[in-house]
Amino acid sequence: MTGTYPAGVPAPGPAGQWLRNLTAPARRTGEPAVRLLCFPHAAGGASAFRPWRDLLPPECELWAVQYPGHEDRIGERPASDLTRTARQAAIAAQWLADRPYLVFGHSMGALLAYETCRRLERLGIPAPDRLFVSGSPPPHRVAGAPSHTGDGPRWMHGYEHGAGSEAGPDDEQYDDLTARTLEADLRMLAGYRPGPAWRAPWPVTVIRAAHDPDLDAAAAAAWQDYAADDITQATVPGDHFACFTRPHDTVRLIAGAVRR
Q: How far apart are alpha carbons 40 and 44 in whole angstroms?
């Protein structure tokens, strides 16, 4: 199955195992002013963010993390420990930190983005300009309770309506692989045990879709305990997968940070 997904161009060197460049080819000229690093949701892959590439400002380079067992890493064993996965992602992400960058994570990806940023600070890697967390309660409301992700049928319905990664040529086989990857990711979430709350020392934006059953206003507000100072709450129209089914609203928020 390797090579059947439009998952982007791997980063050079060891970081290429984890990072995919989704920037439109016409924009891959010169040095970018800023980079955006995205963390996909459960069972999602880097290609889920591919539609964003024409919506971001031209000065922004689009990157996404590719988890083990997902898309062009389908031959690998899926990750089973969220914090270990975050450590590995942080080691890879330092390759992007030679210029200003932003971090975005949706649902499970929001938790991985947060944990990765925690480890970036520990490693002494330059900090992102802003962390965006979307579609997930904060760690202490998630740990050991994967029900926040919804049941399998609801998530599979979301993929069928535009929230999944871009499929390979055999959609039936792809659906089976997605279901198995989703199961593995939900097991990883069930085993997630965050450490003491770490307050991000850089700006944080919490993005909540108005009709997202997984993130109500109170849960979104609870992210305050994970930001040292500057935290912004933003609401967009739509449901849990709004950042993919109607991406303009979410990307507009990110673009505002790019151009500050």
A: 5
Q: Show the tokens assigned to 191.
A: 């085993």
- 1 in a domain, yes or no? no
Angle, helices 171-190/82-93, rounded to nearest 10 degrees: 110
Whether 85 maps to a domain, the answer reads yes
Count of the separate structural domains present in the chain: 1
Give dist(CA 26, CA 73) in Å, integer. 26
Residue 136 contacts residue 111 (beta carbons within 8 Å): yes
For residue 12, the tally of other CB atoms under 10 A from its CB is 10
Nearby residues of 90 by Cβ (< 8 Å), 6 or more positions away: 116, 117, 119, 120, 123, 125
Asked, for residue 141, whether it belongs to a domain, the answer is yes
Q: pTM of the full predicted structure?
A: 0.90
Nearest to 79 by CA among 49, 51, 115, 37: 115
- Dihedral angle sign, alpha carbons of residues 154, 160, 162, 168: positive
With tokens 């904060």, the residue in question is 138
- Tens of pLDDT, residue by residue over 93-150, are 999 999 999 999 999 999 999 999 999 999 999 999 999 999 999 999 886 554 444 4
Number of Cα atoms under 13 Å in the Cβ half of residue 189: 28
Cross-strand partners of 146: none
Reference 5, options 166, 115, 170; nearest CA is 166
